[in-house]
Amino acid sequence: MTAVPQLTIKWAGNEYQIEGLETHQTVYDLKVKIMEKTGVKPERQKLLNLKMKGKPADEKAELGALALKPNFKIMMMGSLEQTIQETQTKPENLPEVLNDFDIDEEEIAIENREDYLQKIEKRVRDYEVKVIAGPREGKKLLVLDIDYTLFDHRSVAECGNELMRPFLHEFLETAYEYYDICIWSATNMVWIEEKMKLLGCTINPNYKLAFYLDSRAMISISTPKYGLIDVKPLGVIWGKYPQYSQKNTIMFDDLRRNFSMNPQSGLKIRPFREAHKNRGTDRELVGLSKYITLIAKLDDLSNLRHSRWEKYIETHQQQ
Ligand code: MG
Question: One fold for both 7-82 and 114-318?
């Protein structure tokens, strides 16, 4: 008998170690182990990146056949019975999801210091962007964060649609007319690909995503207030694709610190959290569709103050 290496289950923002399984045991046995740790019943678990020959692994598949590497992280979706009941009866009773990753929303002024520019140059040289449909001629660039921007990654659910920000596809369809769409998330490429698939963004006939960047394209900068933080410098994209610049790029993120290197180009989106509670009321992407459509006419976006996007719509909509 051979032991399966220790595995990590990532679910609703937490990680659980799973060990003590053997290669002749099945995916179902793994799900039972996961239930012991998380309380989620096997039939309610969806193990997103557990694949066999490129397809989701069947519950009857033997773990030995999956060639699992030590500490392989499995991304799980799944609801607790209790949570499902609470959601169905009293959505307001869902516990407040704490976001331990947000530090503050205060703007952080960062000089374009020489050492940061060197780090950016290094990313331009060494980092490989994951090209999906690629750039098109004459389009502006929209850079989007995933977690809490397009998707509530901390709530529990059985399918991506439950956690998707309302009007996401309509928004992307509008954006696609004027902008190449880049996804930049502070996770790794596997998660990004899985999440975009889960949200149905890879097969929508009305738009195509241009390319993805992950955490490896980020750089660390030092700030007086927060110490060392990782940020998403647009210079990496601008270095790779000279057709984009401060004049035609806009970036959405729920964390302002992510655009510390490019405060001018960043728009701080209201975070989409507690999907079950807020799914019916969140209209952020409806308003932002209007905004990006209105500003798409401009030759230069660098004079705009994106924090006033709602005001901009009010004053320009009638014209
Ligand atoms: Mg985010």
Answer: no
- Write down the residue that tokens 């780090």 correspond to: 119
Q: How far is the CA of 22 from the centre of ligand 1 (A)?
A: 37
Domain range summary for the chain, segments of one domain joined by +: 7-82, 114-318
Superfamily, domain 114-318: HAD superfamily/HAD-like (3.40.50.1000)
Instruction: Quote the radius of gyration of the chain (alpha carbons, Å).
Output: 21
For residue 51, count other CB atoms closer than 10 A to its CB.
11
Neighbours of 162 (CB within 10 A): 16
Please list the ranges in the chain whose pLDDT falls under 50. 84, 86-109, 111
Gap from CA of 214 to ligand 1 centroid (Å): 12
User: Which pLDDT value is given to residue 50?
Assistant: 86
99 CA to centre of own chain: 15
Span from the CA of 17 to the centroid of ligand 1 (angstroms) = 25
Measured in angstroms, how far is the CA atom of residue 73 from the centroid of ligand 1?
20
pLDDT of residue 109: 44
- The CATH number of domain 7-82 is 3.10.20.90: yes
- pLDDT number for residue 173: 98
CA of 102 to the centre of ligand 1 (A): 9
Task: Please choose, from the candidates 22, 7, 33, the residue with its C-alpha nearest in 3D space to the C-alpha of residue 65.
Answer: 22
Distance of CA 256 to the CA centre of its chain: 15
The reported pLDDT for the residue numbered 164 is 93
pLDDT for 13 equals 73
Q: Are strands 211-213 and 130-131 parallel, antiparallel or unpaired?
A: antiparallel
CA of 252 to the centre of ligand 1 (A): 9
Q: What are phi and psi for residue 175, nearest 5 degrees?
A: -60, -40
CA of 231 to the centre of ligand 1 (A): 12
Q: What is the pLDDT of residue 155?
A: 79
